[in-house]
Amino acid sequence: MNITALEHIALSVRALSMDAIQKAKSGHPGLPLGTAELGAILYGEILRHDPADPAWPDRDRFILSAGHGSMLLYSLLHLSGYDDISLDDIKNFRQIGSRAAGHPEYGLVRGIEATSGPLGQGLSMAVGFAIAETMLAVRFNTARRRIVDHYTYVLAGDGCLMEGVSSEAGSLAGRLGLGKLVVFYDSNHITIDGSTSLAFTEDVAARYGAYGWQVLRGSMYNFEELARLVSQAQRETAKPSLVILESTIGKGAPTKQNTAEVHGAPLGAEEITAARAALGIPAGAEGDFYISPKAMEFFAVKRAEWKKARQAWQTEFDAWSREEPGLRKQWDHFHSGAPAPSTGDDPHRPAISLPVFKEGDKIATRTAGNKALEAISAACLNLVGGSADLKSPNAVGFSTTAYSPTNREGRYIHFGIREFAMAAIANGIQLHGGLRAFCATFMVFSDYLRPALRLSALMDQPVIYVLTHDSIFVGEDGPTHQPIEHLASLRAIPRVRVLRPADAEETAEAWAMALERHDGPTILALSRQNITVFPKDDPDWRNTIRTGAYIVKNAGASPNAVIIATGSEVGLALEAARLVEAGGKKVRVVSMISRELFESQPEAVHQSIIPPGARVICCEAGIKSGWERWARPEDILSVDRFGISGPAGKVAEALGFTAGALAAIINR
Amino acid sequence: MNITALEHIALSVRALSMDAIQKAKSGHPGLPLGTAELGAILYGEILRHDPADPAWPDRDRFILSAGHGSMLLYSLLHLSGYDDISLDDIKNFRQIGSRAAGHPEYGLVRGIEATSGPLGQGLSMAVGFAIAETMLAVRFNTARRRIVDHYTYVLAGDGCLMEGVSSEAGSLAGRLGLGKLVVFYDSNHITIDGSTSLAFTEDVAARYGAYGWQVLRGSMYNFEELARLVSQAQRETAKPSLVILESTIGKGAPTKQNTAEVHGAPLGAEEITAARAALGIPAGAEGDFYISPKAMEFFAVKRAEWKKARQAWQTEFDAWSREEPGLRKQWDHFHSGAPAPSTGDDPHRPAISLPVFKEGDKIATRTAGNKALEAISAACLNLVGGSADLKSPNAVGFSTTAYSPTNREGRYIHFGIREFAMAAIANGIQLHGGLRAFCATFMVFSDYLRPALRLSALMDQPVIYVLTHDSIFVGEDGPTHQPIEHLASLRAIPRVRVLRPADAEETAEAWAMALERHDGPTILALSRQNITVFPKDDPDWRNTIRTGAYIVKNAGASPNAVIIATGSEVGLALEAARLVEAGGKKVRVVSMISRELFESQPEAVHQSIIPPGARVICCEAGIKSGWERWARPEDILSVDRFGISGPAGKVAEALGFTAGALAAIINR
Question: Looking at the partner chain, which of A115, A451, A650 has a beta carbon nearest the beta carbon of B448?
């Protein structure tokens, strides 16, 4: 270990961070200054990675859970040689067009493994990364060759540890015995409000011990100790490790270090000058973005070493490929992004025998979804996931075993009653590469996991969310369990695609659509109650549905009304259509499986489904808002109040949500 | 302690629960059967309450955090004499019109202290109850008389303890030394998926020890032990207590107890018959809703004792009132629901000198909000709250001290970086009675607290949520910190009122409106950036704004266009209006501080603001959805994608969100 070089890396991190934040007049110097030594040893000595090939599948992952300290990461990525973050990017920290954004954004720089900033989630996603590593290792490693064998490292602060999501993820990580997860806790005793003692006096070490973690302690500022702690963490293979590092926020800023002030504001020119002098940064021009030549020299040598290490892995991988052609084929499929080995022309259209249903079958869409999942999981061996302790109610069990410390082959994850961590972990599994992740809970509890869903969308991760019990038709469990505003508020998140299939056939197709999607999360909104499989007038509906809507019941080119309905309400619409047709009216019924997908289509597609000038009536067991684009408020049958406890049919009656009520609107 | 009577209470709880769930064909027998002994001793011996006066302010509170076990609570409330839950309600468990709803709903039965069912939140609200007790005790108790002196008891299951929100609340409760909080943990080792070992192997006792709690252990089924444990919990005055009770889910059901199956499905007639025999419930008609006469006799005597205890308290209270007329006056104000001592005619209109601002002042609405909070908190001494570690960024500090174990007088609560627990605790403080609660975070992190906000709304609790940094104008922090979909998704929750004031003057009025509201939560959506105080054409705007909107700039009765804008976009609209008026167009500008409030007004109010037939243009820095009721999609200036990191003005330009863009829409 070249301690002098590491000191120069730390020095450079501090210099770059101070200058970038000062120039941007915005940012968080506290963390990069306080943790520069850890950053230096991680990127200089610990991480097995190759900046020349950031996508190397067997690289170690590093996740900066305390994302506000983004300048730490940008400095290290730049210094170590990730060439998609330039010094110019750093000089334009927090400016439009710079890859050095306010918080680390997945996709902007290839060395950023996950978007972070919303606290607690980086650490929780890391649990997903560590799970993915074990799943791939057990599948692909052989007695002779270990081609999957890497660590997941995390840097977390007080905020990450206070957030409930990290408690959920930490408890599960302990249960799952994720020995290759190493979390560094930057224990600087300062938050935005002041001393952590204002709100955070718990014994963190004892808490993580209670979760079943190995807990280690040391100083942030002793390289030998840091190296020893990492090695100790690596040697513990049956437990994740928490390494508590005593530190000083803003270390190096002579008057501001160890104060809340240094957390999130530029130091100011005067303090920077004093800090440079104290740290031994050569006197130079103000804001010269100093980088120590010794650090550059060190990394130049390192880069050659990293390249060698990666090439050694590649040699091993090639040998393994020759020895195990079947596994290699599977590896390629897993890493192709394609949902399943394809036999057709379109690699993104899975060659899966979806389950077949018969018209007239009465089956809840959650149950139909289970049949689809069973078929898909048999073809897509990289699909993994589970539910927040609702395996049977969500109907997401499939032919596999439960993932556990002694059974890494298991593809079903018992997440426990931890919706938020579940979704964050699913993000981590998906981000790791090689696997497709799904997770499940009751739709009403999507509120619990919403912040992670937002990150799925922001990071374009195709995590599949199975949300069952999707309306007032939940019935007896009452208003705490009946979603009302949820379809609208899930659709509200940019890039989230909500699919609410209307019967079993649509549900199978919805699962396929979810798998086909590669640029963002999909919600499958599924019913608790049975729904009758209905005939579909559009003979090409399996294609048309991919525009977001299709015509279930046509009623000629000039219907008296067009009912747009979603999910279980399509059945209601068909019933209402029958009621009014007795009076001679012609009513078209449209199943709009995805409003946002339909709205993104060109006008011509809209007109092919909804004749221009037609009277449109919308029907969905959720709030009105959002449907007003398509119908007048009085032509929308919606539920704009909290639900009530009672049998589903009675609840619908009490809320005026019936075929009769819909027919009355049409006849009005 | 009359153990025989307690056994008969437990027996009756089991009999009622089995029958009610069986008759409803729906419900959760596992918990009521598994915890009947704890329920019996709590309602029979421990709780200091009086069913004849459920609103007795100094009663002990009991919160069933595991709300799915609602039949436990309904049985006990009925048996002990809460007369608003009848045997008929229980016989109609989970039917419309019955007060025995699927999950306990606050407001349906007066003995229900909080709505529960969404796991983890009952326990977290209880922390709020316990905080409220200490706050009122320190303010009102005197050396001679303790008129506030009660406990908060909670029954929680595995689910509650796995949810992150309870970790947040537990850690904070430890920090705050809430000695009169006693949580019973029903440790039955079974969840819906099967054994808790699937996902939950942590050492719960060690975890709560790490939080600074006293942890006790015992059996659920030994009354003497239960009594001893409660007494031990009560004697520890400096720490909350967790009492871990080993139990058997569904105890008494001969073949189904200790299985996941008994958690959430009726036992079936055969199992009930066998259970009755095993438990010694007299043979009787199927579904006879058996209540033991011994239990009834016991409670008849108890009711007299409880009445005496409450009368003794009343005598003490009366004496205190005579001794402390000033405190008594304050007590009455605190418990009146009125926001402040009123000098006017309307007791709900606070007599507060709101801060005054001048036209042309440039001030962020968060800063204006701080001035309003300062004025209001000086008049409303029962207003308490704080932020999730963003006291200064949220601008919610006011003239008080920090609440802590040694300073119960403090009205500012440092919640730590725990948004969800913060909101749940605010619900608890509000539900307790006597106090008004507010909480604060960045708007984008309202996602973290959303499940608690939904409960505020469902329970009609007027918690005030201060959500600052309310748009892309957050700037540099980037997409993780810029709300896009949040205004829409907050408005989506029934009974939530979102107020987005457009300048400092409106902000002060918005605070007053929030205080005036008593039937649900209010969101104050406030800007990070400075906004110029603008002149208002409506001379009566301070009243008109209470309809949800008013005319800022009139432009005559027949304007060429009406711009509806909210918050900081009203300034943008005024600028755009100036731009197009150079070309001779007349543009009205409406500030719509609350869309949902405005939409709830009669047509005549709508027409007084928006002339029928007028071309309407909407402008808000958030998603389009929901505005389509008022304008064509192409006439809405919105932000329908995630934000970007950069200085606020540059971000707005990059997203096409400028006065020029708005003017172009008007001119189109």
Answer: A451
Complex confidence, ipTM: 0.97
pLDDT beyond 80 at A555:
yes
The answer to whether position B605 is within a domain reads yes
Q: Which residues of B touch A633 (CB under 8 A)?
A: 629
Residue of A nearest to B395 (CA): A193
Comparing CB atoms, the residue among B27, B206, B451 nearest residue A210 is B206
Q: Are residues A527 and A560 in the same domain?
A: no
**Reported pTM:** 0.98
Task: Tell which A residues from 460 to 479 touch B, by Cβ distance under 8 Å.
Answer: 475-479
Reading the block at residue B9, the tokens are: 């209470």
**A345 inside domain:** no
Task: Measure the N-to-C terminal CA separation of chain B; round to a whole number of Å.
Answer: 82
Residue A423 to residue B425: CA distance in whole angstroms: 24
Which of A493, A499, A498 is closest to A454 using CA atoms?
A: A493
Give the pLDDT score at B206.
98
Please tell me the predicted confidence (pLDDT) of residue B343. Answer: 47
Q: Report the CATH number at residue B126.
A: 3.40.50.970
Write out the H or E segment, with its range, that includes residue B262.
Answer: none
Whether residue B510 is found in the same domain as residue B568: no
A340 domain residue, yes or no: no
* Interface touch A392/B174, C-beta < 8 Å: no
Enumerate residues 155 to 194 of chain A having a beta carbon within 8 A of any beta carbon in chain B. 158-159, 162-168, 171-172, 174-175, 191-193
- Is A419 among the catalytic positions? yes
Residue at A545 is within a domain? yes
Distances in whole angstroms, Cα of residue A451 to Cα of each of A122, B254, B437, B447, B464? 12, 43, 24, 6, 21
Residue in chain B closest to A261 (alpha carbons) equals B392
- In this structure, are residues B453 and B445 in contact, taking their beta carbons and an 8 Å threshold? no
B424 shares a domain with B284: no
Q: How far is A191 from chain B (nearest CA, A)?
A: 7
Smallest Cα distance from B484 to chain A, Å:
8
Single residue among B532, B553, B576 that ends a domain in this structure: B532
Q: What is the pLDDT of residues B406-423, one digit of tens each?
A: 999 999 999 999 999 999
Instruction: Judge if A129 and A255 occupy the same domain.
Output: yes
- What total number of domains does chain A contain? 3
Q: Report in angstroms the alpha-carbon separations of A230 from A47, A149, A244, B160.
A: 11, 16, 11, 34
Give yes or no: residues B139 and B276 share one domain.
yes
Q: Are residues B122 and B77 in the same domain?
A: yes
Q: Which domain holds residue A503?
A: 362-532
**Signed CA dihedral, B626, B631, B636, B640: sign only:** positive
Alpha carbon distance B607, A661 (integer Å): 29
Please determine, for residue B345, whether its predicted confidence score (pLDDT) is greater than 60: no
Q: Please, which residues have CB within 8 angstroms of residue A560's CB and are 6 or more apart in sequence?
A: A585, A586, A587, A615, A666
Is the minimum CB–CB distance between A378 and chain B shorter than 8 Å?
A: no
Q: Which residue has the tokens 């996902």?
A: B199
Would the pLDDT of B347 be above 90? no
Which is nearest to B6 in space by CA: B295, B281, B305? B295
At A519, which amino acid appears? D
Both structure tokens of B296:
């009834």
Whether B164 and A162 lie within 8 Å, measured CB to CB: no
Torsion of CA A641, A646, A652, A653, to 10 degrees: -110
- Is B462 in contact with B436 (CB distance < 8 Å)? yes
The residue of A165, A172, A189, A198 whose CB has the most chain B CBs within 10 angstroms, and thus the best one to mutate to test that interface, is A198
Structure tokens at B43: 């309602």
A182 and A242 share a domain? Answer: yes
Instruction: Report the phi/psi class of residue A529: left, alpha or beta, with left for phi > 0 and alpha for psi in -120 to 50.
Output: beta
- What are B462-477's pLDDT values in tens digits? 999 999 999 999 999 9
Query: Which residues partner with A386 through β-bridges?
Result: A439
